Amino acid sequence: MNVLDEIMQGVLLDLASRQVPINDLKQQIDLAPKLRGAKQSLSKAGTSLIAEIKRSSPSKGALSQITDPVALAKSYERGGADLISVLTEERRFNGKITDLIAVRDAIGLPVLRKDFILTEFQVYESRLLGADLILLIVAALSNAQLRDLYQLSTELGMDVLVEVHDEEEAQRAIDLKAEIIGVNSRNLKTLEVSASVFEELIPTIPSSVIRVAESGISTRADVVQAQKAGATAILVGESLVKSGDPISAMRELLGHGQAFAHDNS
Ligand SMILES: O=P(O)(O)OC[C@@H](O)[C@@H](O)c1c[nH]c2ccccc12
């Protein structure tokens, strides 16, 4: 079994333990938080930044002791992030649903629920939690599942980040007419990061699509490489949570240099 299969199995087990009738969720949908327009946030001129709250990863274990995810999210917001990603997968990423709720409450930016979304239940749950953007990983889903979960998410008003890692997956995302496609440089089955994935795949995605470069971005040169390939947004976790000074790290990545690094405005 590869890593992705193991993670998915764990997700389904955890889901079984908190499952309530899906109708209970459907009945509450009218009470869900107001959406913040994720797509709009990622559509500005220039490169958008999605900054991630990530405690741990299956490849590296604990990345940083995030004792106060809300404070980190506020730094991301202050440093100019366009959207905040919050990992909610517990077993391998030490993510927490409560982080998503607390972070969204404390900031004004849209939020991405970063998890392994495999069922309709999770889509309804995400909407009720206030996710503005939801991740669907092509490698984890059949075409029928992908289409159904995508359609349900958009019906509920959420935007969808459709994640791909190879040409075949990219084609499936394009065929779906996904409006936001993320190219993950990390292969979730082996956890290996390959620097050439952005250059190979991003140019195959139509320019009308928001193209997000994901994973392994830690230097300004990485960002420039993703931009050259055609990325319109970047998604960064590890290098920001480990930086100790996320605001400076973000400005460095975006090419705003060190001059503003200690501006507290
Ligand atoms: O920490 P990094 O290398 O900056 O990567 C962030 C993000 O791309 C990564 O967390 C990620 C991309 N796709 C995922 C799917 C599930 C969980 C996590 C991910």
Structure description:
This is indole-3-glycerol-phosphate synthase. Pathway: Amino-acid biosynthesis; L-tryptophan biosynthesis; L-tryptophan from chorismate: step 4/5. With 265 residues, this protein is an alpha/beta fold. The chain has one domain: Aldolase class I (TIM Barrel, Alpha-Beta Barrel). The chain has 12 helices and 10 strands. The protein has helices spanning 3-18, 22-28, 38-41, 69-78, 97-106, 120-129, 143-155, 167-175, 197-201, 220-229, 238-241, 246-253; strands at 48-53, 56-57, 61-62, 83-87, 111-114, 133-137, 159-164, 180-184, 210-214, 233-236. The strands form 2 sheets. Strands 1-4-5-6-7-8-9-10 form an 8-stranded parallel beta barrel, surrounded by 5 helices. Helix 10 (220-229) links the parallel strand 9 (210-214) and strand 10 (233-236). The longest helix has 16 residues, at 3-18. The radius of gyration is 17 Å and the shape is globular. The N and C termini lie far apart (50 Å). It binds indole-3-glycerol phosphate. Indole-3-glycerol phosphate binds next to strand 10 and helix 11. Indole-3-glycerol phosphate binds at residues 52, 54, 114, 137, 163, 184, 214-217, 235-239.
